[in-house]
Design goal:
This protein is mainly α. It has 3 helices and 2 strands; from the N terminus they run αββαα. A two-stranded antiparallel ribbon has the order 1-2. The longest helix has 34 residues, at 89-122.
Length: 137
């Protein structure tokens, strides 16, 4: 009986683990090297494992998710502060906009890392084209 030939398969890319690593701005493959360069730049490849990441284009996804999360955190806090303390509107707006700006500043690179990691886990590059539903495109 001859041994069966085994075809090497690609390593599984678990989405939850990839998202967590991406949110922490780490390589989605190894979790050790950095996936980001500067504030929003994507590294061409992981310095630790060599996984190529620079070809992945996240486009507007990270900004959308950042605003979605920041808005859902800020608005209830502003409404609660207004109900509890009745501050002057100018004070409330300065505090709310400052908090919102700080939250967006801290969340945006993490969301970009998470979207990048999700795209990596799904094997997407960001240049995929979806055909027309009726088959005309």
């Amino acid at each position: 009986m001859s041994p069966r030939l085994r075809v090497p398969t690609a390593q599984p890319r678990p989405i939850p683990r990839s998202l967590w690593r991406g949110f922490r701005q780490l390589c989605p493959a190894c979790g050790i090297g950095a996936s980001m360069e500067g504030y929003l730049g994507v590294r061409g490849a992981c310095a630790h494992c060599g996984e190529k990441l620079g070809h992945i284009k996240a486009d507007d996804g990270p900004a959308y998710f950042t605003v979605l999360v920041a808005g859902h955190v800020t608005v209830p806090l502003v409404l609660a502060a207004e109900q509890a303390w009745h501050p002057h509107m100018a004070v409330l707006m300065v505090a709310a906009l400052s908090g919102l700006g700080l939250l967006i500043w801290r969340l945006l690179p993490r969301m970009k890392g998470a979207v990048l990691a999700l795209m990596w886990a799904l094997g997407l590059k960001g240049d995929e084209v979806q055909g027309d539903v009726e088959g005309h495109g």
